[in-house]
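sry for the spam today, last one i promise. struct tokens for design, 128 residues
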């Protein structure tokens, strides 16, 4: 299991054609790589992605190194109330890449979701 000194990770090689990084709910980094991709390229990829921030719900902080919370998962009103402060906090911390927990797409959730995608300039990824 190779890793970098700053970001230990589990490496899974397969016949895939792309390099992907997954952060599990437990905060572990899993790198999925093509079979013959050089180790140095994998380490460089992990180092580049390792400085990202996560915009998560209260109680999920323990899973992430760099995070900002924006309300409770079960309370869309708390998310709406906290969102702008959380976005300002990310700016103050110098966050360049931010992954946000999806609030949902109905009721107040939809308003929070709409603001998040606008803050992201409509650049989204679907991480399952």
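last one done:
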């Amino acid at each position: 299991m190779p890793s970098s000194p700053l970001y230990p990770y589990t490496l899974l090689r397969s016949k895939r054609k792309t390099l992907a990084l997954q952060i599990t709910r437990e905060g572990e980094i899993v790198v999925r790589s093509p079979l013959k991709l050089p180790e140095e390229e994998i380490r460089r990829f992990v180092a580049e992605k390792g400085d990202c921030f996560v915009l998560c719900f209260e109680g999920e902080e323990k899973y992430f190194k760099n995070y900002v919370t924006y309300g409770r998962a079960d309370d869309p009103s708390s998310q709406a109330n906290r969102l702008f402060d959380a976005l300002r906090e990310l700016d103050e911390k110098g966050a360049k890449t931010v992954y946000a927990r999806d609030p949902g797409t109905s009721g107040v959730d939809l308003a929070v979701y709409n603001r998040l995608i606008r803050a992201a300039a409509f650049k989204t990824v679907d991480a399952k």
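The radius of gyration is 16 Å. ok im logging off now
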